[in-house]
Amino acid sequence: MKFEEPVLKFKKLNYVEGVDENGTPIIKESQGVLPVRAHDTDAGYDIVCTRLTQELDEAGKVVLVYHTDVAVELPQGMVGFLLMRSSVSKKSIMLTNCVGTIDPGYRGELMMKFKLTTDALPRVYQIGDKIGQLVVVPYYKATPVFVEELSSTDRGENGYGSTDKKEKSGTDLILETKELAKDEHNTGEPTTGNSEISGDNR
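and the corresponding structure tokens:
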């Protein structure tokens, strides 16, 4: 039996680009691109950039704002995650919030904000590029309550690194503190504190 595939609704959003001489907002028509999956077995809907603007964070660092000029209506019981694409490994940017959460009640524009990861000439996404993926999954809805005790497990309260191997291997990195050599850049007195990371296999 063949089941009908559900529909995921998107809407193009017009946007304001400045004002005219009378102070009236200038409305621009949306150039939004319908998010689609590249392959039938893909989980993510590719998000395409239509505009690029900039803003500053609280530390005065540049944030690149990638616009899509589209909104989505998620079915009740579903949540959307805006994720980076694997191609970001070739770029000099990183998504500011790592994962964007799209709640089913949100009707605003889908956009992604990136920060630069280099002080050199960066490589970034351009207008028309696929900049991320929208993955839609069910979410668990429950009433939060405090209880006196939680059920016991084998792991218990063991957290960070608790499942790592304890014995050291020959390839473990060892932090060594070495004495700085005298040269024209120091005061002439040996100084400690130059930490180098070394390993058995160099």
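(Above: one complete record from the training split.) The chain has a mean pLDDT of 86.
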